[in-house]
Amino acid sequence: QQQRILTIGLGAMGAVLARLLTEKGEKVTVWNRSEAKAKPLTAIGATYTADIAKAVAENDIILICLLDYVATEQVLAGVSLEGKTIVQLSTGTPQDARLMAAAFSARGAWYLDGAILATPSQMGTEQTPIFLSGSPQAWAGAEAALRILGGTLIYLGEAPGAASAWDIAALSSMFGMMIGFLNGARIIESEGMRVTDLGTMIRDIAPVLGQMIKDTGDDIEQKKYDSPQSSLDICAGTFDLIVRLSAENKLDDGFATFAQRLFRKGLDAGYGQERISALMKTLR
Ligand code: NDP
């Protein structure tokens, strides 16, 4: 018998999740605080149920994509969750996930915490990454439906906080690079050149950057700090240069001084002749 899926939350992301499932022929019910957002989905075959308790009761898999965990608690307050497979796809912290897993399990649900590392227009492809963690029963029950939303499903085991930790760590890596890019873009712009060419060049060397990140991750794991190709001394010098360039070109130096301070801490701790992985010791 076909599983009945309820999608709670029809914002930019939730609406896409509901649409992809409906288009694949799944039996989809939708719920949203403001009813108007359900229209485009009922138009393609989804059902709208205004009463949230009834909507949950009539479905097997409950996908949640609301603003956050607080909104989720508000929406599901007093609703029976007994025997339901719940997949929380709103973004939160590992602690949010642990607390919700405990609370919803106590209410009789199988709870899977999920995190989507993609924008709405990137959903539904082989490459779309979704991290999941929590109840193995919920994972087994929801996997097929989730695969419609993203082909790169990574189940990280039973600890409910794992998916969110991966998500936030990945966002930290991504936006860290993005802020570095914006700072670089200001440098290019202030020298009268085209930012678009910088973007193209960074895209083209992305595999090399990715390999450097991977190597540093391996070094940290293996406590490998010695025999650097580029010593921390040399890397730190990069930020002394960017700080000086910022002054010369009258640019905001917030990014550069933040990084300079971090590197200097590493040097003060005596890691000047070690690899960049040694900065992890400073951060700890
Ligand atoms: P939107 O702002 O577009 O939608 C927010 C949704 O939450 C709406 O359905 C809104 O209802 C609902 N909502 C907010 N507060 C409440 C409340 N107190 N009670 C009931 N419903 C509430 O956000 P997105 O769809 O973009 O994001 C949803 C989640 O998905 C977030 O956690 C986000 O981090 C995550 N996500 C989003 C990505 C993106 O690129 N957009 C990427 C990856 C994850 P209403 O329509 O009535 O206002």
Automatic annotation (TrEMBL):
Domain NADPH-dependent reductive aminase-like C-terminal: 160-284
Signal peptide: none
Protein keywords: Membrane, Oxidoreductase, Transmembrane, Transmembrane helix
Keyword presence, S-adenosyl-L-methionine: no
Residue span(s) of domain 6-phosphogluconate dehydrogenase NADP-binding: 5-157
Annotated Gene Ontology cellular component terms: chromatin
Gene Ontology molecular-function annotations: DNA binding; NADP binding; nucleosome binding; oxidoreductase activity
GO BP terms, alphabetized: transcription elongation-coupled chromatin remodeling
InterPro entries according to UniProt: 6PGD_dom2, 6PGDH_NADP-bd, HIBADH-related, HIBADH-related_NP60_sf, NAD(P)-bd_dom_sf, RedAm-like_C
Chain ranges passing through the membrane: 5-22
Protein name per its UniProtKB record: NAD(P)-dependent oxidoreductase
Natural source organism: Chitinophaga lutea
